[in-house]
Design a protein that fits this description.
elongated, 371 residues, 23% strand, alpha/beta, 5-stranded mixed beta sheet, 9-stranded mixed beta sheet
Amino acid sequence: MTTSAIDTNWMQRAIEIAQQGLGNVEPNPMVGCVIANQEQLLAEGYHKQFGQAHAEVNALANIAPDTDLSQASMYVTLEPCCHHGKTPPCTTAIIDAGIKRVVVATMDPNRQVNGGGIELLKAAGIEVQLGVCETQANFLIAPYVQVTQNKRPWIVAKWAMTLDGKIATTNGSSQWISNEQSRAVVHQLRARMDAILVGHKTANYDNPQLTARPTETNVHRQAIRIVLAQTPTLQLDSHLVSSADRIPVIVTAGPDANSDHCQQLINNGVEILAFDDNQRIIDGLLSALEQRKVTNLLVEGGSQVLGSLFDRQLIDEVHVFIAPNLVGGTAAPAALGGNGIAQMTNALKLAATQFETLGDNIYVSGRTKRH
């Protein structure tokens, strides 16, 4: 096997194991690391939990005692950090370990790193190769890059719809469009999110809990629950308000919101984010979530909220569950409201699209082609 083939093989393994940190490492990126001597695997590790050791340190900790690393290469999916954050710099651990060659898939866009880690390694006499499996590595850290560069969360849109494209009947009935298998996948999806958003009408009509109730997941947390509203009327006995003392709930409010009702929500543990301009609520909310280190935001409806995000090109990832049901009705809502696209040739397409059959449902997921 040639050197380039060996490098590609080990970097692909590093990318594979990095994904085990999904839902646990945010707001940090998922990172994987492999240490090998040619075709011999010496150790591997990944970033497991935010605030805990990074992938490089975990890989080094798995090295057998007295192993000679002078001829070994380290393969890491993201440029090693060179600053002291929650943990010491990974560059120091790499230099102290005696590794003489480091292969990096992509640079860290964080301004505290952004080439600095590579320069420190080179200054210590370590050979650094950059760009192996770069496209795959950038795909892996896209949510992290979104927050780092664009100062907003990675927005994941999710909906269930009938075969004729409806997310509810003409009178708003929507439970349940998808089957139990699809709903189990939704709970797993929620479990790896930092926040979950629904519109005001959806919150009032469906009375959702917006919690993750997965049976098989290694993520043990609940996301912040958010209701996007201008004039909140969320019932005090709703599932969201009733559980606000245990799982955070945020409700936005515009200038015309009823102050007495907002105060009642506050008294029941709900946080109110007030804005003096209805047109700035979405931008203000996204900015507030970025400041709170929210990386992944799941938007579960309704049609107006999803349509507004779509029109503003803010949707990054899509998860759709299609049921073989027909409900009809001109007034029955489709998934995406708003203004929409004028010409079919300009329709937003998905990349990295995946299809799965869940009983009699079809599950389609992918990223918007901007990514």
